[in-house]
Amino acid sequence: MKRFYLFIIPIIGLIIFSVFYVQHLDVVEQKEKDKKAAEAKVAAEEAEKKAEAQRKAQEDAARRQKERDIEDAKKAAEKEQKHKDAVAAVEGQIKEHRDEYNKYLTQTKDNEAKLNQLRAEREALRRENYDLTKQVALAQIERRNAELEIQRFAAMVTSKAEQSLMPKVAATPAK
Q1: How would you classify residue 171: left for phi > 0, otherwise alpha for psi between -120 and 50, otherwise beta?
Q2: Alpha carbon distance 36, 29 (integer Å)
Q3: What does the CA dihedral 149, 150, 156, 161 come to, rounded to 10 degrees?
Q4: pLDDT at 106 > cutoff 60
Q5: pTM, whole model, 2 decimals?
Q6: Is 174 in a helix, a strand, or coil?
Q7: Residue 148 CB neighbours (<10 A)
Q8: How far apart, in whole angstroms, are the C-alpha atoms of residue 87 and residue 94?
Q9: Fewest CB within a 10 Å sphere: which of 5, 48, 83, 167?
Q10: Residue range 49-65: average pLDDT?
Q11: First vs last Cα of the chain: how many Å apart?
Q12: What average pLDDT does range 111-134 have in this prediction?
C-alpha cells in the first residue's frame, strides 16, 4: 500500500493542479482575449487616427493643390494679359512708326518732286542766263564791230576827204 500512496498523491495533486490549471487557463484565455481585444481596439483607434490623418492630409493636399492651381491660373492669366498688353503696345508702336514712315515717305516724295521742279527751274534759269549772257556778248561784239565799222567808215571818209579836191574848212570854235 505504500506504493499505492505513491501513485495516489501525485495523481490527486495532478487532478488538483489540472482543476486549477483549467480554471486559470480560462482566466488567462480571457485576459489574453481582453488584451487582444484591447490591442485590436488600440490598433483600430490608431488605424482610425491614421486614416483620419491621411484623409486630412489628402484634403489639405487637395486644398493646397487647388490653391496652387488657382494661383498658377492667376499667374498664367496675368502673364497672358501682360503678353497681350505688350503685343498690343508693340503693335501700336509699329502702327505709329508705319504711319510716321508713310508720312515721311510722302513728304520725301513731295520734296523730291519739288527738288526736281526746282532743278528744272534752275536749269531753265541757267539756260536763260546763258542765252541772255550770250546775247549780251553778241550785242557787245556787234556794237564793237559797229563802232569799228563807224570808225573805219569815218577814217575812210576822212581819208577820201583829204584826198579830194574840196576846200578845207576851218574848224569853228564851239561857243
Answers
A1: beta
A2: 10
A3: 170
A4: yes
A5: 0.41
A6: coil
A7: 10
A8: 10
A9: 167
A10: 91
A11: 222
A12: 94
How many residues does the structure list for the chain?
Answer: 175
What confidence score (pLDDT) does residue 17 get?
A: 86
Place of cell 502702327: 95
Distance CA 92, CA 119 (A): 39
The residue with cell 498658377 is: 72
**Model confidence at 21: pLDDT above 80:** yes
Q: How far apart are CA 137 and CA 139, in angstroms?
A: 5
Which residues does 106 contact at the CB level (< 8 Å), separation at least 6?
none
Which three cell numbers, joined as nine digits, stand for 100?
A: 510716321
Which has the minimum average pLDDT: 27-36, 99-108, 143-152, 157-166? 157-166
Give the torsion sign (CA, 71, 77, 83, 85): negative
* DSSP 8-state symbol, 175: -
Share of the chain above pLDDT 70, in %: 91
Q: Please name the residue ranges forming H helices in the chain.
A: 2-163
Cα separation, 127 vs 133, in Å, equals: 10
Q: Measure the CA–CA gap between 173 and 30, rounded to whole angstroms.
A: 186
pLDDT confidence of residue 99: 95
> In whole angstroms, what is the distance from residue 73 CA to residue 70 CA?
5
